[in-house]
Fold this sequence. Notes:
This protein is an alpha+beta fold. Helix content is 29%, strand content 29%. It has a five-stranded mixed beta barrel.
Amino acid sequence: MSGMPLREYIMKHKLTTYFLFSAGLLLLCTVLFAHHGTGVSYDNAKAFVATATVTEFRYANPHPQLYFDVKDDKGNVEHWSGELAPNPAQLIQAGWGKKRSEAALTPGTEVMVTIAPARAGGPVGLIQKIVNSKGEQVLGTIALGPPPAEGKQ
């Protein structure tokens, strides 16, 4: 470009300019759409409610993560993990800052979780609702999709 004005350089190298602009736009679109696969990844039609014991809670971007244990009818423990739909900014707006959230979900806390399991299988899902032992909704979450299956614990 040595000494050449930017406009003149662009005009002389139109093809290169269009290619670089297109490549930049494609990269931006890929990044913007890469994260939002919630509707594809989780099956809201199979959402269920389970009694769970919190093992770990991470208040992080892009979505907080909850790790918990669920016992089946025979007393076998299954280790689950789930992401919460609201991001930290939405939780803060709903009054659930990091300290309050971490205090409500300390390891060993027993909660009822409504979770939509991953379509790919495994003990992973989207946590739609968390209710503490007092019956209070935790983390300002809301149930998504159809109501959970009755009696599926």
